Amino acid sequence: MALYSIGELSRRTGLTVKAIRFYADRGIVPATRRNATGHRLYDEDAAARLDLVRSLRDLGIDLPTIRRVLAREVTVADAGSSSSSWTRRSTGSTVSPGSAGRSPRRCRTTRPPSRSTPGSSW
């Protein structure tokens, strides 16, 4: 069984290390185990769970519902159809309220450019 560091898992899934820690700390995708120095290690199942979490979050499904999907208390279809925060625009695409005209939420995989430039006042 191959184990991945949190950095390797970040590169594989496209999620930031911070996002993976967030999901791990909330028990949504816990680390498979820790190495001798206490660093988190993840297996292929954790990578698959993170892919599912990312997809469900992109669809606007909240974390308590995602937790229920991962626990197999509800199906993905049930989670999507019972979410009261979903609306249909005239285009027929499913979006969350207030997101019209915006692209789906994605976790950033690269650092944004610095706002300050040499010689600027801030």
Low-confidence stretches: 84-114
Helix and strand run: EHHEEHHHEE
Largest sheet: 3 strands, antiparallel
Briefly note the structural class of the backbone. mainly alpha
Detailed description of the structure:
Mean pLDDT is 77; it is low at 84-114. The chain has one domain: Multidrug-efflux Transporter Regulator, Chain: A, Domain 2 (Orthogonal Bundle). With 122 residues, the protein is mainly alpha-helical. The protein has helices at 6-13, 17-25, 44-58, 63-70, 76-82; strands at 4-5, 33-34, 40-42, 87-88, 94-95. The N and C termini lie far apart (49 Å). Strand 4 and strand 5 (94-95) form a beta hairpin.
Characteristic terms for this protein:
122 residues, mainly alpha, 5 helices, 9% strand
Question: What is the strand and helix layout of this fold?
Answer:
Blueprint: E1 4-5, H1 6-13, H2 17-25, E2 33-34, E3 40-42, H3 44-58, H4 63-70, H5 76-82, E4 87-88, E5 94-95
Antiparallel strand pairs: 1-3, 2-3, 4-5
